[in-house]
Amino acid sequence: MNEQKRFGIGVVGAGMGAKPHALALQSLAGSIDVRGVYRRNRAELETFCQTYGFPPADSYEALLADDKVDAILILTTPNAREDLVAAAARAGKHVLMEKPVERTLAAAERIVATCDAAGVKLGIIFQFRFRHASRLLAEIVAEERYGRLEAAHLVVPWWRPQAGYYDQPGRGTVAQDGGGVLITQAIHSLDLMLSLCGPVDAVTAMARTTRLHKMETEDFVSAGLEFSNGAVGAVMATTASFPGGPESLTLNFAHATATLTAGNLTIRTMAGETITEGETSQGGGGADPMAFPFDWHAAQIADFADAVRHDRQPLSNGHTALHVHRLIEAVMASSREGKRVVVSS
């Protein structure tokens, strides 16, 4: 690909989750060219495009026919993804898509296989990986700076109100979202945990719906984890913790403990040293799910465009996303069956 040419993106979907993407794309205007945005609701599409200065597209087919579109950014609900990805792959367009890949592991695997067969890149939006503190901790883990990882503890104490969130049609249903707190909210933190700690071999879990919500799927999950590298771990994730707080991932190494709380990292070493790095930001853990900055999205979009230009895998891609889908499937199976479940590979 010509390094001088702006990377062309077509956007499909412009609902609640599109705002940070739009702001990120605006900030990347020097290198990213938004060729068009398509949404079926024309009035809402026009409002979105006027707000952010993007051109509306007449149809999805029009975006696919544009030879200046290098990739499609898919921001629809999970139940509308598979056909859109297949059409993009047939047209030779790379795909960057909001999490999750799909509602089920089987559908997610089909999407990844479709992109592989067509030779197009597939990136999955997991913006937590692109926080400064997350990247720093990834370097520390890769270098084994504080020795072997022995344990991990993830807490996602978020809040979503019934009115205005779960009362929306389709919200928290298997048919639209594929599940509850795990696949819709905690999936970001679970993906980050796996990227730092490696794969999980087995889980023992409990998933329930609290009396605070009326919904089809789970709003509270606890699980014990057995990592492939011999470390152990625990997860608690909920959307029933009013008013909602920042997610926290603690990693216990042989010689130090590192804690990521939203975008802030604190390391305490056994030699008595304390190291802090981070940023002042909200995390989307409260009633407003979009209360976070857009720079993490901008960093991920830039990484995806660079991956296409240099023919490499994006940092967060379809294959890495399958790890978190397999973990979620195992957690839910363990809860249903009331026993330890081995994570599929």
Give the strand order, joined by hyphens, for the main sheet.
Answer: 13-12-11-10-6-9-8-7-14
Q: Percent range for helical residues?
A: 25-40%
Give the DSSP E fraction (strand runs of 2 or more residues). Answer: 15-25%
**Main CATH class of the largest domain:** Alpha Beta
N- to C-terminal separation? 34 Å
CATH topology of the largest domain: Dihydrodipicolinate Reductase, domain 2
Quickly give the structural class. alpha/beta
CATH architectural arrangement of the largest domain: 2-Layer Sandwich
Number of helices, where a helix is a run of at least 4 consecutive DSSP H or I residues: 10
Q: Can you say what the CATH homologous superfamily of the largest domain is?
A: Dihydrodipicolinate Reductase, domain 2
Using only C-alpha atoms, the radius of gyration works out to 20 Å
Oligomeric form of this entry? Answer: single chain
Domain module count: 2
Please, what is the average pLDDT?
95
Write the H/E string, N to C: EHEHHEHEHEHEHHEEEEEEEHHE
The major pleated sheet works out as: 9 strands, mixed
Please provide the count of β strands: 14
Coarse morphology: globular
Uncertain regions: pLDDT < 50 for 5+ in a row? none
GO molecular function: nucleotide binding
Domain Gfo/Idh/MocA-like oxidoreductase N-terminal: 7-124
Domain GFO/IDH/MocA-like oxidoreductase: 136-249
Protein name: Gfo/Idh/MocA family oxidoreductase
Task: Describe this protein's structure.
- This protein has 345 residues and is of the alpha/beta class.
- It has 2 domains: 140 residues, 3-Layer(aba) Sandwich (Rossmann fold); 178 residues, Dihydrodipicolinate Reductase, domain 2 (2-Layer Sandwich).
- Helix content is 34%, strand content 24%.
- It is built from 10 helices and 14 strands.
- A hairpin with a 2-residue loop joins strand 11 and strand 12.
- The longest helix has 20 residues.
- The mean pLDDT is 95.
- This is Gfo/Idh/MocA family oxidoreductase.
- It holds the Pfam family GFO_IDH_MocA.
- GO terms for molecular function: nucleotide binding.
